[in-house]
Amino acid sequence: MNLLFKYTGIHMERSPILGSTDEFVKYLENLNVQISRGVIDVGKLELCSADFASLYPSIPHDDLISKIRIMVNYLFSHKKNEFNQGNKLATSCEEVVVVLEKHPSVSPARWEHEKPSDDTLSQNEVCLTADLIVQLVEYVIKNSYC
């Protein structure tokens, strides 16, 4: 049975797994319209995510997080080496970061050879270190439940 239809009256042609944040916003806007029309009782709504453990029960979370940490650190280390090999500056690159614009931007993220200062970072940009990315992914994995 389609639980989304049962509880919200929204029929989806395909799986409710979202491919982008734009899709999520579209579904929320549709849900808000349904609520404002009185079609959906807000008191019966519950926002939840799929339980990661039940989606991938054979993967121990700590092991998965460990492998993700290794992969992210490898990527950041590789990018740091790229910056240092092409570096025409007197000093070597100590830390690389990823800078991206906050939603609803669809601009691609970019690598930077140093953490931008708060003055050079625009208000709608976010700077992510390797450690922060791992912490965010770990939080999602450990706190996804229904």
Helix/strand layout:
Elements: H1 3-8, H2 21-36, H3 52-55, H4 61-85, E1 97-101, E2 110-112, E3 125-128, H5 130-143
Helix pairs in contact: 4-5
- Strand proportion, as a percent range, falls in 5-15%
Basic shape: flat
Question: Helix/strand/pairing class, anyone?
Answer: mainly alpha
Q: Tally the structural domains.
A: 2
Distance between the termini: 17 Å
Query: Which regions contain 5 or more consecutive residues with pLDDT less than 50?
Result: none
Oligomer: single chain
- Tell me how many strands there are: 3
Average residue pLDDT: 77
In brief:
By secondary structure, the protein is mainly alpha-helical. It is built from five helices and three strands.
Describe, in plain words, how this protein is organized in 3D.
By secondary structure, the protein is mainly alpha-helical. The chain folds into 2 domains: 3-47, no CATH class; 61-143, no CATH class. Helices cover 45% and strands 8% of the residues. It contains 5 helices and 3 strands, in the order H-H-H-H-E-E-E-H. It has helices at residues 3-8, 21-36, 52-55, 61-85, 130-143, and strands at 97-101, 110-112, 125-128. The chain has a 3-stranded antiparallel beta sheet with strand order 2-1-3. Helix 4 runs antiparallel to helix 5. The longest helix has 25 residues, at 61-85. It starts with a helix and ends with a helix.
